[in-house]
Amino acid sequence: MAVRTTVLSSAWRNVWTAVPDIFLCDCTFCSCNASTKSDSSEASKFVTLVDMVLSLHKGPLDTFTIHGTHNYHDVFARWIYKLSTKGPEDITIKLTSGQQYKIPSSLFSISHLSFLYLKNCSISLPKKFEGFKLLKVLKLKAFSSTDSDISNLISSCPQLDEVHLRYFKGINCLSIQAQSIQILKIEGDFEDLRIDAPNLVIMYLRLDMVEGYQSVPVQGDMKSYLKQTFGSLTRIVSLNVGSSFLTVIYPRPEAFTRKGIWDQDETEIQAPTLDYLTMITLNDFRGLDCEVAFLGLLLSWAPALEEMKIINIAEDTTDERIFKATKKLLAFPRASTTAKIILT
């Protein structure tokens, strides 16, 4: 029996060092004891495990996923360097304890990446970054970066198909320039948005906080802003917008009317052509004039529209305001003769 066990253990060691997919989580070492000493012991065991896996793994590595709730800042750079030598195609890093993890330059040297998910991180591109030429999916959550770094990261991935940016800091003007992107989901705080993505099919857009934005760059030229934001979205099929975003692009009462947006130099800036847009969703509806005005514009821009859904009506919104807003909305002309407006 002892011999068989030894043979099995030896065989298993040889097998796991060549498995293509690795998932590591420090929850494996969690105990009921919540003491500081216990936390330190759990973290130490996990560090040993990760070091061993990255050192002994010999086969090609397709997927590497790591989840952790303890502090690993002092070993993080070492882990990423070792990981970069394996050339994985799919990386997910979710280390949620303490301050954000600064992504080492070694990660940006992994040339075969096709999927990248980073949570609780700080992103600063190395000067010699040449892009992820094969990256198709980029998901960043609870991260910090700069306008230029995030813009360059996205534009340097020629095959990028899907981008998720959630809960970020340090980005004021969010510029998305990518010919290949089809799915874009943005949820965070920013002052300005520029999108050049002609193949975009699905867009989710939500601004977390607007209280601090009393004056934003888009106020000066509303027509240009709308054209730059939506003008390139000629293939968009599904558009999901949070109400808070509208309070930023329509911050002034005089901008609430549809006429006020296009009453000057209308020949210079044409309304976006949203010929493929079939679904519009507005979240956190309050019945504000800015919301109604924006939805009215979309109704006039989308000849293939099937449904406009207004969901998650804010709790502090009165029935009277919703009734008035709905009445205005139903009165707008529609480019689509089959478009339905649904309130839930």
Compute the number of strand runs.
15
Structural class: alpha/beta
Tell me the β content.
15-25%
Main sheet overview: 13 strands, parallel
Q: What is the ordering of alpha helices and beta strands?
A: HEHEHEEEEHEEEEEHEHHEHEHE
Mean of residue pLDDT?
A: 82
In whole angstroms, how far apart are the ends? 65 Å
- The total count of helices amounts to 9
Protein name: At1g61320/AtMIF1 LRR domain-containing protein
InterPro entries: At1g61320/At1g61330-like, LRR_At1g61320_AtMIF1, LRR_dom_sf
Domain At1g61320/AtMIF1 LRR: 65-330
Pfam families: LRR_At1g61320_AtMIF1 (PF23622)
Defining key terms:
13-stranded parallel beta sheet, alpha/beta, two-stranded parallel sheet, 344 residues, disordered N terminus
Task: Write the topology of this structure.
Elements (H helix, E strand, L loop, with lengths): L1 H15 L4 E5 L10 H21 L6 E6 L4 H12 L5 E6 L5 E2 L12 E8 L14 E8 L2 H9 L6 E8 L3 E5 L5 E6 L3 E5 L5 E6 L14 H9 L7 E5 H7 L8 H5 L16 E5 L5 H13 L5 E5 L7 H13 L8 E4 L1
Q: How would you characterize the overall build of this protein?
A:
By secondary structure, the protein is an alpha/beta fold. It has a domain at 20-171. It has nine helices and 15 strands. The strands form two sheets. Strands 1, 2, 3, 4, 5, 6, 7, 9, 11, 12, 13, 14 and 15 form a 13-stranded parallel beta sheet that branches. It is elongated. InterPro entries: At1g61320/At1g61330-like, LRR_At1g61320_AtMIF1, LRR_dom_sf. It comes from Digitaria exilis. Residues 65-330 form the At1g61320/AtMIF1 LRR domain.
